[in-house]
Amino acid sequence: MKKKIASSLILVLAFLLVLVGCGSGDQNQSEDNANKETPKETEAVSGASQTSYTPYDELKDNYDIIIIGGGGAGMTAALEAKDKGMNPVIFEKMPVAGGNTLKSSSGMNASETKFQKEQGIQDSNDLFYEETLKGGKGTNDKDMLRYFVDHSASAIDWLDSKGIQLNNITITGGMNEKRTHRPEDGSAVGQYLVSGLVRNVQEQGIPLFVNANVTEITEKDGKVNGVKVTFNQKDEKVITADAVIVASGGFGANMDLISEVRPDLKGLVTTNQEGSTGDGIKMIEQLGGTTVDMDQIQVHPTVQQEKSYLIGEAVRGEGAILVSSEGKRFTNELNTRDNVTAAINKLPEKSAYLVFDSGVKSRAKAIQQYEKMGFVIQGDSIEALAKEMGVPADQLKTTLDTWNSAVKDKKDAEFGRTTAMDNDLSGAPYYAIKIGPGIHYTMGGVVINTNTEVLNKDGKPIPGLFAAGEVTGGLHGQNRIGGNSVAEIVIFGYQAGIKATEFVKAQ
Hints:
This protein is an alpha+beta fold and 507 residues long. The chain contains 17 helices and 19 strands.
């Protein structure tokens, strides 16, 4: 027991040292971590310490299940497969585990959870379903969506059973109920989730190899039977298994592919970590898998442009507003991400400011990281803040006065905002962060069913091949709701671990 406590404390301390000592280790945003001059070094220190990973001399030639990708979906799948008696292995191509999960900011959406019930939040799976379907413009895969919402509460319970408690609940754009679950202290979810999953992976003795780039998924007699993996960019090995789970993430950092499917997005910054290049999609296509919605790429409205760093939706969820360079509000800040992005792009400068007060800062703990990175402008009064922002002071004061009256009356006559109006913006000092849109999430990917089986062009499962997370497509339709990606990786990562295990046991 003492050893477990000690190892957990070491891991937590490693994360804290990273956050303090490395400007772009990302507190967990879905943001491009950033210091573009040294991306590999940045990513290498943005997760658990490298000493925590499995040494190469422990590599075996065969495992029950190979998992490609050491992010949230991959580690969740591995833990569930291990719990079911399997001998899984995780191959992560980057120097650290975590992937884009490490950058996740707002939280994890779930409905009818025990934490909602404890806090008197009335929610339903049906409402979660309808709001997500509306957010995706009705184009979501309805079977996948139904499974997703109906298993969201049990995913929260599963995390809780692993010592990963998400009991602080807020709201994100496109939702009408508080269902975005965060760590108890209100901090961003990503590093907390990754550290918890890594801790569990270590405690369960699951091998997790980093700098392990899977280049090909192999098959024999029409069934997947392993992978080719290159270690440290030089040593290629062929590793066999009875099943493979692909959890390698999306392609938000592959600007060539993005420019091919969405030429209009060329030149935008990306919030994605550099490993998000769509490798898993390409390998699955080579096996006959098919894709959906590849041109559906989400642009996040609030990204700090110089460091491509996502400013989490929870800042708006805790009461912040958006103002233009004229000091005026111009949209419902908690509309869906595509609509907020469109509103910013209509401004002449295609950028805006998040404006908030000390109350929002106390509730959205991620702001502490934004301050460390130099993103936050501060003023002891509204007039002082306006001067720092370079916007008209009288107009900014009018904007805040109007907003505070709207909060008091619970009616936003200007833009019809109805959520995150529990607190006004009257607590000095005042703050602002300059933001603009950035490429954030790829809704498209490979086609799977609710069993996480990868389907071919005839809609038939490819034997032994499973996938979960951002590498897949269809669930989100044309627009992802903030908080749904973390839910997706846990819900379908868990399912992939179960279904891959069932496949192996049936062989």
